[in-house]
C-alpha cells in the first residue's frame, strides 16, 4: 500500500523544524536571526546526524556579516540576486556574483559575506552543512567549545584555497559524470552525462568543489515520464528539486507501507538512511534536482555507500 504523505516538517523550537519534506523553500516562513543579522529556518531532516540544512534570507539591500567557519557548506540560490565576498586571511578579496540557480561552497575557514543586490526583493540562500558531524567531533555537549573552535579557529586551510586569482573560474572535467568546479553561476549550465544505470534517459554529474571531503554535490535529471531505478544507501542525502514536477516513493526501513511525496521545483526532501526510494517525473519537461550527500565520507570510512 502507498500512503500519499504530506509529512511536512514540524516546528520544534525557535527557527528549528523536523521532518522529511518541505514543499517549497522559496516561500517557507523564516524568522529573525539577530545574532547572524538575517532571517532563517533550520531543518533537522529524517534524523540525519551528519548533515543539516537551513534557509537564510537577507532583506533588500542588506547583507549577512562576514564570518568564517570550519564547517563544510554548500550554498544554492533559489531566489534573488547579489554577490558574495570570499577572502583568505592576508589575501585579496574575491567577488562572486550570484543569481537564482547559482551554486557555490565557501572554502574551509575562509572569510565570506553575502550581500543582497536588490533594493526591493529579499534574497534566499539554501544551505547544507556538516555541522552535526562537527558538533559530535568537537563536543556536542560543550556548545561553547564547539563554537569557539568552529567559528574561531585561526587555522588557514591554504592547501584548499590560498587566494588564487582564478580559483573560482576552475572548470575541469575529471571523467565520466565527474566535474571539478568551485563556483557555478547557473546550475542549468552544468553538462550532465548519460547514466543508464540510474534509469532510462537519466543523466547526472558529480561536482568536486573547493576540496570538500565530507559534503558531496550531485546534479541529476529524470526525463519526462521517466523514473530513477529504486535504490537505497546508508549515506545521508538532502535533495532540492529545482526543475520539473513529480513524486518520490519511499519505503522506510522496518515499514511495510510506502510513502509518496509530491514535489515540484522548490521542494526539499531527505530520504531516511537505508530507505528504498525512487523518483518519478510527471512533467513535460525533465525533472532536475540537486543532491547534497555524504557518500564520499562513507567510502573513505570503508563503508559500502549504495545498494
Can you describe this structure?
- The protein has 307 residues and is mainly beta.
- The chain has two domains: 7-150, Jelly Rolls (Sandwich); 171-300, Jelly Rolls (Sandwich).
- Helices cover 7% and strands 43% of the residues.
- The chain contains three helices and 26 strands.
- The strands form four sheets. Strands 2, 3, 5, 6, 7, 9, 12, 14 and 17 form a nine-stranded mixed sheet that branches. Strands 4, 15, 16, 18, 19, 20, 21, 24 and 26 form a nine-stranded mixed sheet that branches.
- The chain is globular, with a radius of gyration of 19 Å.
Full CATH superfamily name of the largest domain? Jelly Rolls
Secondary-structure element pattern, one letter each: EEEEEEEEEEEEEEHHEEEEEEEEEEEEH
Instruction: Count every helix, treating DSSP H or I runs of 4 or more residues as helices.
Output: 3
Biggest sheet descriptor: 9 strands, mixed
Number of domains: 2
CATH topology of the largest domain: Jelly Rolls
Write down the overall geometry: globular
Query: What is the count of β-strands?
Result: 26
Task: Indicate the CATH architecture of the largest domain.
Answer: Sandwich
Integer average pLDDT: 92
Level-1 CATH class name of the largest domain: Mainly Beta
Distance between the termini: 23 Å
Helix residue percentage? under 10%
What structural class is derived from the secondary structure elements? mainly beta
* C-alpha-based Rg, rounded: 19 Å
| Unreliable residue runs | none
Amino acid at each position: 500500500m502507498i500512503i500519499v504523505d504530506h509529512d511536512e516538517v514540524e516546528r520544534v523550537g525557535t527557527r528549528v523544524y523536523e521532518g522529511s519534506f518541505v514543499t517549497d523553500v522559496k516561500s517557507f516562513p523564516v524568522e529573525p536571526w539577530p545574532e547572524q543579522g538575517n532571517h532563517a529556518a533550520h531543518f533537522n531532516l529524517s534524523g540525519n546526524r551528519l548533515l543539516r540544512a537551513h534557509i537564510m534570507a537577507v532583506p533588500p539591500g542588506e547583507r549577512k556579516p562576514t564570518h568564517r567557519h570550519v564547517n563544510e557548506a554548500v550554498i544554492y540560490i533559489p531566489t534573488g540576486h547579489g554577490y558574495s565576498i570570499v577572502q583568505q586571511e592576508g589575501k585579496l578579496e574575491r567577488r562572486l556574483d550570484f543569481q537564482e540557480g547559482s551554486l557555490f561552497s565557501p572554502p574551509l575557514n575562509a572569510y565570506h559575506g553575502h550581500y543582497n543586490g536588490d533594493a526591493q526583493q529579499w534574497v534566499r540562500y539554501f544551505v547544507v552543512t556538516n555541522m552535526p558531524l562537527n558538533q559530535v567531533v568537537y563536543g556536542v555537549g560543550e556548545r561553547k567549545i564547539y563554537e569557539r573552535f568552529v567559528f574561531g579557529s585561526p587555522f588557514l586551510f591554504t592547501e584548499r584555497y590560498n587566494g588564487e586569482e582564478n580559483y573560482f573560474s576552475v572548470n575541469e572535467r575529471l571523467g565520466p559524470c565527474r566535474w571539478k568546479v568551485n563556483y557555478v553561476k547557473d546550475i542549468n549550465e552544468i553538462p550532465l552525462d548519460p547514466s543508464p544505470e540510474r534509469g532510462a534517459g537519466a543523466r547526472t554529474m558529480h561536482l568536486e568543489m573547493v576540496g570538500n571531503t565530507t559534503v558531496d554535490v550531485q546534479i541529476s535529471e529524470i526525463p519526462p515520464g521517466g523514473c530513477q531505478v529504486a535504490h537505497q544507501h546508508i549515506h545521508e542525502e538532502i535533495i532540492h528539486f529545482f526543475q520539473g514536477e513529480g513524486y518520490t516513493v519511499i519505503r522506510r526501513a522496518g515499514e511495510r507501507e510506502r510513502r509518496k511525496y509530491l514535489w515540484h521545483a522548490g521542494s526539499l526532501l531527505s530520504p531516511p538512511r537505508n530507505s528504498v526510494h525512487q523518483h518519478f517525473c510527471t512533467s513535460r519537461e525533465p525533472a532536475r534536482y540537486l543532491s547534497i550527500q555524504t557518500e564520499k565520507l562513507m567510502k573513505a570510512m570503508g563503508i559500502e555507500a549504495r545498494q
